[in-house]
Design a protein that fits this description.
Rossmann fold; about 35% helix; alpha/beta
Length: about 375
Amino acid sequence: MKKIAAILYGACAAVFAVQMPSASAADLSIGVVVSTTGPGAVLGIPYRNVFGILPDKLGGRSVTYTVLDDASDVTSGVRNAKRLLDENKVDALIGSNSVPVTLAMMQLANETRVPHISLSPIDQDPKKNPWTFSVPQPIPLMMGAVVEDMVKRKVRTVGYIGFADAWGESVHKALLAREQDSGFKVTSNERYQRNDVSVTTQALKIISGKPDAVVVGGSGAPGALPHIALRERGYTGPIYNTHGSVSGDFIRIGGRSAEGAIAPAGPFLFASQLPASNVVKPVASKYLADYDKAYGPQARSPFAGYAFDAYLLLDAAVAKAVKQGEPGTPAFRKALRDALEGDVKDVVGTQGVYSMTDSDHNGLDNRARVLVQVREGKWVTIND
């Protein structure tokens, strides 16, 4: 049985070390940075939990995972990533659930030539960042499902409102990229802050344009605010959101106004609703059963499956890399990076099927998404 120890280092970094049986000095060391305190803890704690239920082998070799808290802060995240690299001599880095911390870790991975798997959606060029790989679905892939549904509904005009930050901008960019070939016109580009309590002015501007549909570039509970404002002011058309809003908090905050909301989602939270032919279903179902057994169904996260998929990718890549070098050496880390990029194909995870290349360090396709809708206060998959 795994021994799990939680240790507090100073005032900045909580360490959650999953100690595996040590077979030799060549055992693997994997470093993880996630937010277990601060605003990002709602994501980071479920991620951390995943490393407590993983098998004690990685690619057939004993493994130690050391999980450090970035405190939802870039400075702390960088400091702890450097600690993992300098003190633990990790063979790979995983993290963070925060985009800014992830981008800083990506730079460290390049500088130290250590493979890095991101747990947050990032835009990256594999040619410029050859050591970083990402497991979350890219925004364009997920918003493609929204666009396809709008085309089916013969939507011609689309109102847009999103966060006034990188997330809102990325969603808007993905929507505009499909505007011409999909036959619709984006009629507005309204923005709001994540901590705003009202978007009445923006909603009225959107409604004045009489759009056939509205897309909300939000996430979590704040993503429900435009739904409330639009419905309260009589808008009756379809309202779409992003995969970042597929949560119970969105429904709780949105209430009746959230009813009918449509969004793309990763398949794993909806494993029980997937057809038996879906290749992701057995992997996602097994993961959810193990997670529920350890932490209870109430602790489920719509995003923690990404941490399990990072493990699956490393498990497949390590089995290849150990033929080229021993863990703990630069030769092994280079072989691990090369295996992730070129040798590991059709890895079925909880969120989709991964086949990375030298031009695509994510490797997911349409199997990594389902379309869901709020019906009678619950998110359910839709096929119409």
